[in-house]
């Protein structure tokens, strides 16, 4: 397992973490093919293999994800770094403090290692939210402050609101296909020693190579993800084929190659979401090999040549929700 520091804190975190949006969420197909036992075992398998960064959120499964994470790590608290998130509707001063108490209770822990603001809230002043975050640090309820889905401008503004603390991370969408973070956020984060936490690092399963025009996932999450729209899925098959070819040289799966490419090119941490211990194990082993320069170059050229449609029309979105 490869490790890095969380921002400039010196706290050691694994470059492959584990994402838990899938836990308790019917939009992902919860209790249709996987359930609580799979989820608990997935976390424990990941930790056994050296993963120490676990990402959850108060919104996931209406709190069930936090409960499951808490259950899974009850005996392992000191080995893991627990990151959870506050939903934007709770980002008033008192809202933050109360939400944190609820998360601590569900997780069954005394402090949260990394408390992240899930999305910016355009209505509630960020200064209020950050004041509450600093209060929570002082109280020892959280160790570090992070944000998620913040643009560079929002990140800088949020940092300016903090008196004594620093923002140590920004969690954003980042995978081989969706690389907007490379434009502004990554260069800034590298300069300022802010960790970029890459969510959807497998493009919601697409980069594992199991989806194609004959096998399109039917769950709500991916019906709403334009990458799974037929023309895009078709356009991405060459990349998937290449991931398979490269992977076969190293005895690795396409998903492992995609994760390896992500964490070896830039010092980000990837948090693939999982549904069971088999997926957790495969992902945890994604950093165990080194793609050679030639393969990195071939893959990078391939992703740079990809042209896909990035936005659904409103009509298409409604149609996909209704008809799948
Ligand atoms: N901050 C935010 O706003 C935000 C947004 C999204 C996600 N996140 C966080 O980031 C995490 C990851 O993102 P994500 O869940 O959107 O996407 P992802 O990690 O790219 O994809 C997860 C999906 O890929 C499939 N998968 C995972 N590992 C696999 C393996 N080894 N082999 C085959 N299939 C595998 C699973 O679905 P199937 O088996 O059904 O294909 C899984 O549900 C989330 O769990 C959450 O913690 C945060």
Automatic annotation (TrEMBL):
Entry keyword set: Oxidoreductase
GO cellular component, one term: cytosol
Start and end residues of each NADP-dependent oxidoreductase domain: 16-303
Pfam families, alphabetized: Aldo_ket_red (PF00248)
Domain of life (superkingdom): Archaea
InterPro entries, per the entry: AKR, NAD(P)_OxRdtase_dom_sf, NADP_OxRdtase_dom
MF (Gene Ontology): oxidoreductase activity
Designated name of the protein: Aldo/keto reductase
Species this protein is from: Caldiarchaeum subterraneum
